[in-house]
UniProtKB/TrEMBL annotation:
Lineage: Bacteria, Pseudomonadati, Myxococcota, Polyangia, Nannocystales
Keyword vocabulary terms for this entry: Signal
Signal peptide as annotated in the record: 1-21
Annotated source species: Nannocystis punicea
Protein name per UniProt: Cytochrome P460
Length: 163
């Protein structure tokens, strides 16, 4: 039997499915954005060296607040003989860029998350919930490659001091 004829027979048989299986198909939804996954990131922990808004010379706004999810918090608490060589999967960092040290307007939100050993980024202007870009943009990868496992604002945990 030819492949074309087999496909035609299968189409007819599938079309004759019982009435109980004819529920309307649900639209395929797009994966949630990293920002949507982060939720209310302003309630997250902050890195020890970034407990408050800091002035920066970076493309994220003149003053930034940095928030870290519980995966990063747990990683920072690890004490391993060799230190921590890389951040764990599902680590997420959110950077909120402002135009002033106190108060000020939100001018940018940047989100990064590690999945399958690879970092993904999204960047938003301060008034939108649609990313300006996402994935592995060259601008993010190029700049962040200078950090420890792509994080520039704080370090991976060091090995414990020798006694």
């Amino acid at each position: 039997m030819s492949t074309r004829r087999s496909a035609a027979i299968a189409a007819v048989l599938l079309g004759a499915a019982p009435a109980g299986c004819e529920e309307p198909l649900q639209p395929v939804s797009e994966a949630p954005t990293l920002l949507a996954e982060a939720g209310d990131y302003t309630q997250w922990a902050r890195p020890k060296n970034r407990a408050e808004r800091q002035p920066v010379v970076a493309p994220h706004g003149g003053f930034v607040d940095i928030y870290i999810n519980d995966v990063v918090v747990a990683d920072q608490a690890m004490v391993l003989p060799e230190g921590l060589p890389a951040w764990s999967d599902e680590a997420m960092v959110v950077l909120a860029g402002h135009d002033a040290m106190e108060g000020g307007s939100l001018v940018q939100v940047a989100v990064m998350q590690k999945r399958g050993g690879v970092w993904a980024w999204e960047q938003y202007d301060g008034s939108s919930d649609e990313p300006r870009f996402s994935g592995r943009p060259d601008v993010c990868v190029g700049c962040h490659s200078a950090g420890e496992d792509f994080i520039r604002s704080f370090r991976l945990p060091d090995p414990p001091p020798e006694e």
